[in-house]
Amino acid sequence: MRVLLIEDDPMVGKGLVVALTDAGLSVDWCRDGSAGAEALAVGGHAIVLLDLGLPGKDGLTVLQEARQLGNHTPLLVITARDEIEDRIKGLDLGADDYLVKPFDPGELLARIRAVSRRQSGQTTSVIEAGAIALNLATHEVSYRGKSDFLPAREFALLRALAERAGTILSRTQLEERLYGWGEEVESNAVDVLIHYVRRRFDKDIIRNVRGAGWMVARS
Q1: Residues 6 or more apart from 204 whose CB is under 8 A from it?
Q2: What is the pTM of this model?
Q3: Paired residues of 99 in beta bridges
Q4: Mean pLDDT throughout 3-30?
Q5: If DSSP codes are grouped into helix, strand and coil, which group holds residue 188?
Q6: Beta-sheet pairing, 97-100 with 75-79
Q7: Residue 121: pLDDT band by 50, 70, 90 thresholds?
Q8: DSSP 8-state assignment for residue 210
Q9: Residue among 69, 24, 77 nearest 50 (CA)
Q10: Which residues lie closer than 8 Å to 2 by C-beta, 6 or more apart?
Q11: Distance between CA atoms of 208 and 193, rounded to whole angstroms?
């Protein structure tokens, strides 16, 4: 799951990148509003974390322009502005949630899961695809009677496939979901992750479609 972080404070930004990466998310970090608006327009992110007091272009302007252009990417405002008027304005302009700094990284991750659930129509933090069940809060995966806790990247791979169960995802599509800007990706990185997941459970948990990519069964 790729996250777009638009935050100008270097200390806050670095802390969030570490917390999100440790949780298995891939983070692309923009440090001003103009760059953030451009990245948001390009797309490819599952959720946006947007500060409001940004150089270049104010966060509310970034939000308003994105929604006016029809960009429906889930967006969570993270800001030190705690006035009720600011919260109301941010939500009315199209933010999916509003979190006031300082906050605990655990709460941020919980809110990201909640926003993702609403976006996909889920009611819990468990994704089910056929015989697979993924707990987004704990990284526990269950498959055909066996359960295990997966490392961040393996979990992210299986989540990307489970969220689009029944659909073939190519190597490029998986890499785009698993790795952020500037990350060096080995040519066999996806193959290695798939090997690890299969070794934990069974080779049939992820199916290979020769010449096209990989998928997990819908049922």
Answers
A1: none
A2: 0.78
A3: 78
A4: 93
A5: coil
A6: parallel
A7: low
A8: T
A9: 77
A10: 25, 26, 27, 28, 44, 45, 46, 176, 177, 180
A11: 13
Residue 55 to residue 47: CA distance in whole angstroms: 21
Block residue for tokens 């270049």: 56
Specify the residue for token string 């979990």: 155
Tell me the angle at which helices 171-178 and 152-162 cross, rounded to the nearest 10 degrees. 130
pLDDT tier at 123 (50, 70, 90 boundaries)? low
CA distance 193 to 148: 15
Sign of CA dihedral 55, 60, 65, 66: positive
pLDDT digits 0-9 by tens, 78-117: 999 888 998 899 999 999 999 999 999 999 999 998 998 8
H helix or E strand, kind and range, residue 216: none
56: alpha, beta or left, given left = phi > 0 and alpha = psi -120 to 50? Answer: left
Contacts of 33 (CB under 8 A, 6+ apart): 6, 54, 55, 56, 57, 58, 59, 61, 62
Which amino acid is present at 107?
Answer: E
Tens of pLDDT, residues 27-81: 999 999 999 999 999 888 989 999 999 998 999 999 999 999 999 999 999 999 8
Q: CA 175 to CA 190: how far, in whole Å?
A: 7
Map residue 77 onto helix, strand or coil.
Answer: strand
Distance CA 180, CA 27 (A): 6
Q: List the one residue out of 165, 167, 172 whose CA is nearest residue 189.
A: 172
How far CA 195 is from CA of 163, 180, 192, 202, 204, in Å, comes to 19, 22, 5, 10, 11
